[in-house]
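Blinded run. Sample ID left blank on purpose so nobody reads anything into the name before looking at the predicted structure. Input follows.
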Amino acid sequence: MVSHDKIETCLKQDKSVQHVHVSGDGYHYELLVVSDEFKGMRPVKRQQWVYAKLNQYITSGDLHALTMKSFTKAEWESSRE
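Blinded prediction complete.
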């Protein structure tokens, strides 16, 4: 099991990530990730990008159930209106 803080820190190491929110019970995690790296990416490519960042936790088995929402900064701002 990996902590919420470790997941958040791992993703925020990429300077393009503007916002991360991690929730979950230690077995199933929900992520909200905002990054302009997602511009022009389809949803599957966005997921692959996030999975690549979290690969160390996935391959170790510490992170195995994950759902996510991914937005560019503009998408995130318009969804909050």
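Unblinding after everyone has recorded impressions. The chain has four helices and three strands.
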